[in-house]
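Record type: ASSEMBLY
Status: queued
Input:
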Amino acid sequence: MPENPIIDEAKCDGCGLCVSVCTCGGLEIKNHVVTSINGVKCGWCAMCELVCPSGAISCPFEIIIEDNQD
Amino acid sequence: MAIQLASLKSIPYFSGLSDATLAPIAKYVFEKRAERGEILFFEEEPADVLYFVVTGVVKVFKTSADGKEQIFSIIRPGDSFNDVPVISGGKNLTSAGAMSAVTLNGIKKKDLEVIIKEYPQVALNIINVLSRRVKELMMLVEDFSFRRVSSRVAKILLEYTGKESSERPRLTQQEIASMIGTAREMVGRSLKSLEEDGAIRIERNRIIIADQHILREMAGVS
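Status: finished
Output:
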């Protein structure tokens, strides 16, 4: 299970929009590429994915059926 | 604060204009800054200012009578917002808020009218921008009218679910949007709607199908 958004460094142009909208402070720009900050738990609001103009960051959801169903 | 010509050049309204043409236009442009969460203007207020995003991200949204917020579009650097009511006259059609710390360039309605009259190239550029906006809105209308996005999202969730850990696929909202041919914003809205109806529950990075029967009904599958 991914704990942080998935970053495609090749696509990232370092614009920093994802960092600017991140409410949990879990992202930063290092060497012109976005990176997750270790130890900061992402709240998975997926705003970073929404605002990224190059599709470099993604927040995939696991889709599961609740146990008590047939 | 002086407005940078380079920043104006990146705006579709002013593309193709020389520095000599842009310099007098820049005198009509002012800068505005806002913090994350700040509301830039409200729906139904008089539409006086056209804005361009220089840095940061702005959301354009409407709020329903029961307080639900629906995001219509995300405005990134270089893009404009509030064009239609400013040009056509009247009140703001939507509200706008800063999703991050933002720097905006603004032009007052009366100044925009002067610019349009004096610089025909700007008028042509505006027609292009508004044409693109109409296309985007037509797609939204199509989604609302014919496609029943929530139903298609429900179908995708049923198709991509798995009970065993190894079978569980992971999908982004962008991927779901691409699969059903709609905008990413529409998927977010549909997931919220499915959650409100009790069909699913969203827990951080998991979409839990809480009631298969409701979800199947919404997807139109038996």
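Annotation: Residues 5-138 of chain B form a domain with the Jelly Rolls fold (CATH 2.60.120.10).
Annotation: The CA atoms of residues 143 and 182 of chain B lie 7 Å apart.
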